[in-house]
Amino acid sequence: MSITITTVNVNGVRAAAKKGFLAWLESTASDVICLQEVRAEPDQLPVELRDPRGWHAYHAPATAKGRAGVSVFSRQAPAGVRVGFGSAEFDASGRYLEIDLPEAGPGLIVGSLYLPSGDVGTARQDEKIRFMDAFHDHLTDLHAKAAAGGTHALVCGDWNIAHQEADLKNWRANQKSAGFLPEERAWLDRVLTPWTDVVRQLHPDVPGPYSWWSYRGKAFDNDSGWRIDYHVATPGLARTATAALVERAASYDLRWSDHAPVTVTYDI
User: Fold this and answer.
1) Are 240 and 266 in contact (CB under 8 A)?
2) Of 8, 24, 80, 207, which is least surrounded by CB within 10 A?
3) Would residue 197 show up in a list of annotated catalytic residues for this protein?
4) What is the CATH number of the domain that holds 8?
5) Which of 31, 51, 158, 205 is catalytic?
């Protein structure tokens, strides 16, 4: 079977809905959509965002109002839904939600991740490092679970780290910036030892394709972006990936987020 999965940081889903997200949702051929930075409680969402027609929708808001928040929309009803990854500090922070899709090939777990962005020299960067340490343990367990069960796992989302020089346009100027620090990139090296960066697998040796552009200046027009939105898959699933596309808006004024949807089709 073929399954198409999209991940996108919506930068506030209610704002995105006013700019074109709902039209995109109506037109997409994706089977699963992972959203990040939803920034709303479910009861604050209109029904077309809380429970969109044709989708099974699940939300993990943050206890901090108006911040973070992840959601997963699935055309197939999942057999299980889990918020968080067993972390006392982070499970209520609106940063991770995963679902079980047992009818997808040999079985598939899909997670929506919003990793903290960090800020060098501040408590926000300390929080990011703590999250990375805790989440790495979950990734290790999830990989082992999939391997033992002969199933697949996929963690989509805004990882807030550009892994390699090819993953951001102005890498030389950002070597001391959060999102491209040596220790963050080394952490992704460890993650991607058993796991696979699917988009990079399908698009090797090319700049980007970028998925985030600042709203400031001419970053979007000049394609001066960062690739920080990933599909990170277990190896068996990664081998089934047939196409990967960053759905970059045709022009600046047609953007409904500072991120673009990253869509991958798997033939499982």
Assistant:
1) yes
2) 80
3) no
4) 3.60.10.10
5) 158
